[in-house]
Amino acid sequence: MLRISGNSFGWLLVVFLTTMFCGCSLRHSRTPTRCAPYISQRHDFQAVPKPVGAGVQSDFDSIGDYRTVRRSLIEPLTPENALSVDLNEVLCAAARNSALADLIEAERHALACRVDDCNPLALDLLLQGEALEQRNKSAGAAGGLFLRLVEIELQRELLSESAAHLDQLSDTIQGAAAQGFSTTDGEHELAVGRTRLQAMESKLNTASQRLSCELSGLIGLEGQALLRPVYDLKPSDLDLDMQQEIQIAESSRPGILAIESALSIGINPEAVLEFLGLSDSRLGLQKRIQPVGKRTLIRKVIEKSSLEPDTSNTRRDQLARLLEGRKGQARNAAEVAVIKIQGSLEKLAIANENVARMRTRAEQLSSKVEIDVQGVYLELNRNWFDLQTAKSERVSAAVEYDSAVIELLQAQGALSEECGFCLKNVVN
Predict the structure, then answer these.
(1) How many domains does the chain have?
(2) Which pTM was predicted?
(3) Which is more confidently placed, 369 or 198?
């Protein structure tokens, strides 16, 4: 048994009381610094007088012609310098280059080297799951950008067909004019068609540059370059069962698997606090906020209380609720993706029927050319552009369909897994 002599006890009592009362006296002797309360002040708006006749005006005379503007802005990134990439390369490069995932992995490594009472395996699993979720998210974003580039390339092909058609139409109009026919309507339609093509070409070029820039950032490509997608757009009807796809999303997402494994291990509440703080800055505050007080002994008691059974159950409940929230998000994402797949497939079928109908119409008009050359040619031209519009809508629907498939794979956590990023040390 530890014995304390009377002299020793007396010295301890003196030190304790001195610490208590000196601390208080020092604190009370200080002149408190008070900040003046902030008072919101209202300032009345005062407009500066404007000259007579001031208002909204426009002046477009300083804008050059289309070819000059296009050459000055887009020439630095030309198709000749484009870098060809395929979907798998893009998905896996984005997964590898996820900056947030790398930061979480660094945190995981730092915590693995720390020696304390936290459960290292459970916390390691949780951080693995968070990093994989970020890699899966980056891959999904990259896949969406890639497919939009695919759509741009296919729309460009349709524009090239339209430009060739207008050249042919111009030759036809010139031939008709040489034979004495009135070509005013034909020349007007030709001019309108060329203007529309220029506007669409400009829009596609700008979108291609922007998407290439965004995708380059995701896949870790340095420097400016146009990305040229290599991809076969061949949508096929998928036999999907929504409930089954949702179940896959709930059971295979890395973030969900990690939390389930951590709970099955019996995770330490301190480890839960660590994880909650990484998941959301508003959580895990008890771990990060240091109690303010003059007695270190009280702070130690508070820290010790965080490991008591009631607190432990609270932390496990928080983690379980987070798990349910993650499952709900996975369910919703998978359900939305399946709905998009179905909707885009219906749009694709309608666009396909429109293309077939326009082609049939073109064949019918071609058989009447000898009866009314001028009228039939104008009608053929209108039908041809309607056909191109239907083809364009079909391309958009097909890309939308494949994009929805990527969204479904992302909802199920399959994108990062297919690139070789998987949970390790999972407890079944």
Answers:
(1) 1
(2) 0.75
(3) 198
